[in-house]
Amino acid sequence: MTTILVVEDEPEIRRFLRSSLGAEGYRVVESPNARRGALDAGMHKPDLAIVDLALPDRDGRELIRELRQWSAMPIVVLSARAQERSKIDALDAGADDYITKPFGVGELLARVRVALRHAAQPPSGEPIVLGSVSVDLEKRLVTRGGEEVRLTPIEFRLLACLARHRGRVATHKQLLTEVWGPPYAKQTHYLRIYVKQLRDKLEDDPEQPKYLLTETGVGYRLVDD
Amino acid sequence: MKGYAWAIGATAACTAAGLAMEGRFDPVNIAMVYLLAVVIVALRFTRGPAVLASLLSVATFDLVFVPPAGAFGVDDAQYLLTFAIMLAVGLVISGLVESVRRRAREQSKLELEAETERMRSALLASISHDLRTPLAVMAGASSTLATKGESLSAGERVQLASSIYGQAREMSEQVAKVLEMTRLETGALRVERDWESLGELAGAVLRRLAERMAGHRIVLDLPAALPLVRVDATLIEHVLANLLENVARHTPRDTLVQLRAKWTASEVLVSVEDYGPGLAPADLERVFGKFEHGGPEGARRGVGLGLAICRAIVALHGGRIWAEAVPGGGLALRFTLPLEAPPALPQEQPA
């Protein structure tokens, strides 16, 4: 049975998370603060953690860093609207995804499912399907409607990096360091240019993309079919 | 300090003028020139410089223009009167000026307080009207579910629950707007600028608002070569979202909406144009006020902060925002963002 750890101090929020996650068939472990969260994570070995960023005893970001030292389980962050900065820090610290309060349960469950799916299956050799586009990372082959799409080496590296985070957010910093290298971590305009080039090559309507999505102020998310 | 320098300068200037007049005018007329200097210093500065100006004036006048020149003479006692008058004029004028200044300061402080008070009551009125209704729905629907849930059909339960969810979402949007306005006004908001593509931001907004804008026909007209802008992406996305929501709120279904952009050497101009009913010319400026709903009382929805927030955000970025009529009916909401020298681009061979 899949176990989900919920680290959240508000009992009313824990209550509806317990109901909805429970109804979805997950086993739920609840911790009211970061200290308990760290203990429960060690004790129950959950498959995924949902961590509120504003915890009473410690910053949620610290907890994420601590968990990341020994666990690769997916972590989904709950953040308030005004916590833009700490949300990005949490993702850079190793969280897989975020959801902004107030949220609907449907949205949360979708995030949880994606995170669990990617954790469960290490990258298979299977091509990624984006509508009529197929991306085969191993063969370094991208086709659109059967025709080969020619990507520059950087376009390909960016697409591969997004594909590794498939379904989840990749922050600007993560993409820039992985594609161009750490000295380029702040050159956000590189991303703007290359994302546009990728969209022009992969999306049916590059102005209103369906697969390579902008997470404003945070990063990008590649969503496959 | 500036005032004292002025007092000395003015006296020196009067002495120069007096020397030019000497022989052709009576000393009394020369004394008048000094009096003028005292008046000017008293008008512009505080009491201290005015007293210094009167003192210096009488002393130089006596030394230079009253015989024996270069010394204080026996008859000089009469110039004590001249001095007393100059001093009195200086004091009276600087006192008057001071009290006028004080009153102006008090007045503007009072006006500020009144404005704050007006804001506060408008905010309260707005909150009580616009947030109470969703709260009433939520309290009613949820208590129905809690106490009578068992005797309702599954369909009815789902309906009640969805209406609670819908109202809660709407309310959370409105509360977020009030908070955002407060943060903008108190300067508590940090602007995090980065190089952004307006086309990308527009795409993200349309995706986020897809449900709310589903009834409208939206046409994007953003040139592919539109330069990057250095802005806070989250804030500019809010501007675009608020402008589009404003259209969704105030125009009928199926209205055509165009989101376009063009640019000059120094700025980008973004427009949201609709072909709806438009606005009376008198309302074009008013819509950017706080707690303005544009339209009849019954049609109001939300706290009426959307466009005021847009104006504050655009101003923070050094741009302008305004509304104008679209020929043939309809409304155009336009804003500008300054363009900065574009950053160096990565070099790579084409594929």
Summarize the structure.
Chain A is an alpha/beta fold and 225 residues long. Chain A has helices at residues 11-23, 34-44, 60-68, 84-92, 105-120, 153-164, 172-179, 188-202, and strands spanning 3-7, 27-31, 48-52, 75-79, 97-100, 128-130, 133-136, 141-144, 147-148, 169-171, 212-215, 219-222.
Describe the structure.
The complex is a heterodimer of chains A (225) and B (351). Chain A is an alpha/beta fold and 225 residues long. Chain A folds into two domains: 3-120, Rossmann fold; 128-222, Arc Repressor Mutant, subunit A, CATH 1.10.10. Helix content of chain A is 41%, strand content 21%. Chain A contains eight helices and twelve strands. Chain A has a five-stranded parallel beta sheet, sandwiched between helices. Chain A has a four-stranded antiparallel beta sheet with strand order 6-7-8-9, with no helix packed on it. In chain A, strands 10-12-11 form a three-stranded antiparallel beta sheet. In chain A, helix 2 (34-44) packs parallel to helix 3 (60-68), helix 3 packs parallel to helix 4 (84-92) and helix 6 crosses helix 8. The longest helix of chain A is centred in the middle third of the chain and has 16 residues, at 105-120. The two termini of chain A are 26 Å apart. The mean pLDDT of chain A is 92. With 351 residues, chain B is of the alpha+beta class. Chain B folds into two domains: 2-104, no CATH class; 194-338, Histidine kinase-like ATPase, C-terminal domain (Heat Shock Protein 90, 2-Layer Sandwich). Chain B contains nine helices and seven strands; from the N terminus they run H-H-H-H-H-E-H-E-E-H-E-E-H-H-E-E. Chain B has helices at residues 2-21, 27-44, 47-65, 77-148, 154-186, 198-208, 233-250, 283-286, 306-316, and strands at residues 194-196, 217-221, 229-231, 256-263, 267-274, 321-325, 331-338. In chain B, the strands form two sheets. In chain B, strands 2-4-5-7-6 form a five-stranded mixed beta sheet. In chain B, strands 1-3 form a two-stranded antiparallel sheet. In chain B, helix 2 (27-44) runs antiparallel to helix 3 (47-65) and helix 2 (27-44) packs parallel to helix 4 (77-148). Chain B is elongated and about 115 Å long. Chain B starts with a helix and ends in a 13-residue tail after the last strand. Mean pLDDT of chain B is 84; it is low at 296-300. Chain A binds chain B through residues 81-82, 84-85, 102, 104, 150-155, 172, 180, 187-190, 192-196, 207-209, 213-217, and chain B through 165, 168-169, 172, 176, 179, 183, 190, 192, 194-197, 199-204, 206-207, 220, 222, 228, 232-234, 237, 342-343, 345-346, 348-351.
